[in-house]
TrEMBL record:
Superkingdom of the organism of origin: Bacteria
Protein known as: Antitoxin
UniProt xrefs under Pfam families: PhdYeFM_antitox (PF02604)
Function: Antitoxin component of a type II toxin-antitoxin (TA) system.
Family classification: Belongs to the phD/YefM antitoxin family.
Organism: Micromonospora carbonacea
Amino acid sequence: MSESAAELPISEARESLADVVSRAHYAGRITYVTRRGQRLAAIVPVELAEAIERAEDAADVAAAREALDRIDAGDTPIALAELRSELGR
């Protein structure tokens, strides 16, 4: 069972980092670290972070497979320079 999420100013998080990390690990608590009320970062259970990474990896693989399928179907790949230009980079 996980605790509900909490918000903690960065000054307090700095003073109680070990406790915040322990609550993430043992109780499943997500703690949002804030500055002037704005969320800056989150301390999350490692299982959650790893699940997010796996989901992102799966989405990347699916996008790559879709792009390769479009190329196999006859679409012309976009040159890297053109893509950068479209993205404004």
